[in-house]
Amino acid sequence: MQQLASYVEVASATLNRIAIVAAASAVLAMVCAAGWQVIARYVLDQPPIWTEELARRAMIWAGLLGATAAFRAKTEPTLFPGAAEIGGGTGLLLATIRAAGVLLLAVPVLWFCFVGPRGGFERSFLDRTANRPAEMLDIPMVWFTAAIPVAFTLILIHLAADLMRRIAHKEVETHT
Fold first, then answer.
1. For residue 161, what are the domain limits?
2. What is the pLDDT of residues 98-117, one digit of tens each?
């Protein structure tokens, strides 16, 4: 269990670093788009139509990827702020309760991202946005709505890493 927990932890940490870089890049894209909008509107007197939408879509990616990083760092809003520092059996119990709450939200969201009302991929959330163009950008909306399943999948990986680390640590405590 210790080795599997280590692999999942490495995967979680690596994905977290990628998410942070992607979130920072999305913030940069948002700032650049909004900045160009201001310059084009007030200096050039010809505001482009795509900048506001690009800034909004970049904000979605930045917010969701940032939320995954906050979840991994345990800095997300929580009912029990000190629970992350509690170890032993009580800490594992609190982590399990946290996991149950996360799963109650994440599993249905992921399910309906990929599965439609009749049980197939057709009419799923991603399918419905795959062929819908963005309002002002000439790309399908799925490039933006994909942020939701990506974020929830990352959160589940971070959750698994935390639980497995706690379980592996608990096993080491009982054997010593």
1. 2-175
2. 889 899 999 999 988 898 78
The closest of 22, 10, 23 to 158, measured between CA atoms, is 10
140 three-state secondary structure: strand
As to burial, measured by CB atoms within 10 angstroms (0-12 exposed, 13-18 middle, 19+ buried), residue 130 is middle
Q: Which residues contact 29 (CB under 8 A, 6 or more apart)?
A: 54, 55, 58
Split into its structural domains, the chain has a count of 1
Positive or negative torsion for Cα 86, 106, 72, 164: positive
Selection from 24-33, 90-99, 124-133 with the highest mean pLDDT: 24-33
Structural tokens at position 10: 């490495």
pLDDT tens-digit readout, 36-95: 999 988 888 888 888 888 898 899 999 999 999 999 988 877 766 676 677 777 878 888
CB 65 within 8 A of CB 147: yes
